[in-house]
Amino acid sequence: MQAFDYEDIQLVPNKCIVKSRSEIDTKIKFGPMIFKIPVVPANMQTIIDEPLAIWLAKNDYFYIMHRFNEDERLPFVKKMHQRGLFASISVGVKPKEYELINELAAAHLVPEYITIDIAHGHADTVIDMIHHIKKRLPGVFVIAGNVGTPEGVRELENAGADATKVGIGPGKACITKLKTGFGTGGWQLAAVRLCSKAASKPIIADGGIRYNGDIAKSVRFGASMCMIGSLFAGHEESPGEVISKNGKKYKTYYGSASQYQKGQYKNVEGKKLLVPYRGHIADTLHEMQEDLQSAISYAGGRELAALRKVDYVIVKNSIFNGD
Ligand SMILES: NC(=O)C1=CN([C@@H]2O[C@H](COP(=O)(O)OP(=O)(O)OC[C@H]3O[C@@H](n4cnc5c(N)ncnc54)[C@H](OP(=O)(O)O)[C@@H]3O)[C@@H](O)[C@H]2O)C=CC1
Ligand SMILES: Nc1nc2c(ncn2[C@@H]2O[C@H](COP(=O)(O)O)[C@@H](O)[C@H]2O)c(=O)[nH]1
């Protein structure tokens, strides 16, 4: 298997079949709903909060609420449904998480999406949680992860997951590769390709996306959706205060397995960084859509599916990886 990452790949253009990029459709059906673009902000505490989730849902973007305000998740589902919006939450695998599923079922609160979010998702703990959710909340679209291998994808799909999330350690705030020696960091795009070939259901490419063009590349290699953290971290709407330093504005971005998230230095696999302030998230999402429309035009198509068939070349070291 050849190892490559986003910066090593360039997609090869086909003849354009549209007169304007505005004709091009970037919509994606993912689970029970259709979204404007195949992009979801990472379910991390420095990336999403309730006001942003509401804005994203109202504006036809996919979102996944993080799982770190444990007791706010049930009321969150209720509030979203009262507003006529879809609910999409995350869970872990510890005993309290089983109770949450039971409480949601008892209250007849059925979120549209539940993401099982742990670092090493190819595990019986995740398989057991998939079974539990499917038993108690059968209508929910279950996303499970993270995994980095075809075997991981197949096992979670066979257990009942409706989609799997691929990426072990490629994230900008991640230090898993350094701390453990394991992961898909440096070959995340090749891992997406490998996993998507084994998948019979959608996969989410999670981590390592540094430029808008990487979204098109993820779709080329089989992703239905891209989860992005660092590119979304610096916005006005991102949780946390704007920090001024040497006349420049920043926002904080920290890993979900960092000591800042955990409140203690134990099994730490994430770090904290400052990312430049980028204005409003609506502008970034709009630019992502425009760039994706342009990418589809280079693919010679009118919709996302055109990207799946384009040729590619591997050009090692063409540009420096942001990491
Ligand atoms: N995508 C990625 O590469 C990574 C993502 N993360 C993110 O960090 C957050 C915290 O993740 P996580 O620590 O899994 O969540 P939790 O702290 O909720 O741990 C989940 C469960 O899995 C156990 N566990 C965690 N890591 C391992 C492992 N390597 N082998 C065996 N058991 C394990 C934990 O027990 P115990 O702690 O006692 O071992 C716990 O019971 C999540 O949001 C996750 O997505 C973290 C690292 C990598
Ligand atoms: N190894 C770790 N990975 C983490 C941690 N917190 C989050 N993540 C993963 O990173 C992506 C976002 O990646 P980015 O390159 O777009 O910034 C996120 O969705 C998680 O899967 C962590 O502490 N350690």
From TrEMBL:
Domain IMP dehydrogenase/GMP reductase, chain residue ranges per copy: 4-310
One of the GO BP terms on file: purine nucleotide metabolic process
Keywords tagged on the record: NADP, Oxidoreductase
GO cellular component, one term: cytosol
Binding site for NADP(+): 203-226
UniProt cross-references to CDD domains, sorted A to Z: IMPDH (cd00381)
Active site positions, chain numbering: C174 (thioimidate intermediate)
One Gene Ontology molecular-function label: oxidoreductase activity, acting on the CH-OH group of donors, NAD or NADP as acceptor
Class in the EC hierarchy, top level: oxidoreductase
Record Gene3D superfamilies: Aldolase class I (3.20.20.70)
Any Pfam family the entry gives: IMPDH
Catalytic activity, as annotated: IMP + NH4(+) + NADP(+) = GMP + NADPH + 2 H(+)
EC number, UniProt record: 1.7.1.7
Role played: Catalyzes the irreversible NADPH-dependent deamination of GMP to IMP. It functions in the conversion of nucleobase, nucleoside and nucleotide derivatives of G to A nucleotides, and in maintaining the intracellular balance of A and G nucleotides.
Similarity-based family: Belongs to the IMPDH/GMPR family. GuaC type 2 subfamily.
Identification of the protein by name: GMP reductase
The organism of origin for this protein: Liquorilactobacillus ghanensis DSM 18630
Gene: guaC
